[in-house]
Design a protein that fits this description.
Layout lengths: L16 E4 L9 E7 L5 E7 L7 E7 L5 E4 L7 E9 L5 E8 L13 E7 L5 E3 L9 E8 L5 E7 L5 E7 L5 E3 L9 E8 L5 E7 L6 E7 L6 E2 L11 E10 L2 E9 L7 E7 L5 E3 L8 E8 L5 E7 L4 E7 L6 E2 L9 E7 L7 E7 L7 E8 L1
Antiparallel strand pairs: 1-28, 2-3, 3-4, 4-5, 6-7, 7-8, 8-9, 10-11, 11-12, 12-13, 14-15, 15-16, 16-17, 18-19, 19-20, 20-21, 22-23, 23-24, 24-25, 26-27, 27-28
Length: 374
Amino acid sequence: MVLPLVGVSPAGADTPWFRVAVPSPGDNGVLTDVSCTTPTDCVAVGRYGGGPLQYKTLILRTVNGVSWSRIRSPNPGYEHFLEAVSCVSATECTAVGAMRLPNDPEPLFDPDLRPLVLRTTDGTDWAWVPTDAYGEQSWLVDVSCTSAVRCRAVGSAGNAGSDHILLRTTNGTRWLRQSIPASPTRTTFKAIDCASNVRCTAVGYFGPSNRFLTLVLQTTDGRTWERRASPNPVASGDSARLEDVSCTGPVCSAVGYAESHPIVPSRAFILRTTDGLSWTRAATPPDSPTWLTSVTCTSATECTATGELTSSHLTEILRTTNGTTWTSLDHQSARDGRDVAAVSCPIPTACTAVGVFRIPPTANAQRALVLKET
C-alpha cells in the first residue's frame, strides 16, 4: 500500500543539491541506504520508532525523483531495522537488515539477532523471506543483486559479531551461506557489490581493536572467494577501514577512512583497482578530515562518494571524473546535524543521497533525510 505523497523543499540558488521532504514517522526516522535505477526511480530503506524494542522497517519510494511515498513493509518479529537495499528495476528490489523474534527478550543491537530479508517484485508489495535457518546472533549489512532472483548479502555472526557471513540466492527466496577465506583475527564485512553474477567484491576491515586493516575479498566465478592484497596507512599503528565499494566490470572503487594514534580526525581513504587484483590508493583532498561511508560509480572513471567532515560534522561529497583524483564538491546541501549514510547515482551528476537530520541539529529528535542532485 502506498501512503500519501509529501512536498519538496526548494533548491538552493547556487547548488545542484537540495533536501527533499519525505515521510518520516515518529521521532526517529533513519534512512540507511538508497538504490536508484533511473534518476527518477529510487527506493530508500531504514527504520523508525521511539527507541529500543520499538523499531520498525521503513521503506520509501519515488517514481518522479522528488515526491516520496512511504511503502508498507513486513515486520515479522517485534523489532527490526533495514541496513541496505538493491534494486535491479523500478519494481524489483531486495532489502536486508536484522530482526528479533517475539520470544527473544534481548535489546536491539544485542548480537542475538536474526537476518532480515524483504523482497518486492512489483515495487509496492514487500514480502518477508524467512532466513532463520542461518542461525541466531547474525545480521546483514549490505546486499547486491544482479537480477530479481540473484543476490548476495554480507553481514556478521557470532558473539558480538566475531564472525563474518556471506549469503547467496539464485531464486530470490532460498539463501545459502557461501564459503569464504578464514581470518586469524576478527573480521567485519561492511559492503558488497556484484558487477555480474560471477564477479563480486566484498570489503570491510580486520584486526584487533587497537588497529584495523583493510579487507578485500573477490570472486570471479561466483563460487570461490579469494583475499586480495589492499593498501593500508604506512605509519605504524595507523588504522584504515573500508565502508563501501562500487564496481563497473573489473574496475572498483572502495571508500572508508583512516585514523592515526593517538586519535586525530579521520581522513578519507579510497582504494581503486582496474583489474580486481591490484589495488592502489587514490588521491583525496589534502588533509581532508573526512569519514566516507558510501560510494557509487557510473563508469570506470566517474564516481561519487559521501560522508562527513569529522572536524565540523558537515556533509561531505567527493567526486572523481578520472577514477584516481577526488575533489570535494562545493555545495550548500551540507548542514550541521545532517548525517549522510548512502548515495546512489544511476547516471553521472544525477545522484540521490539519504541519511538522517536532527531538529534542531543539537536535539535528539531526528528525521529521514534525502538530498537530490539535479
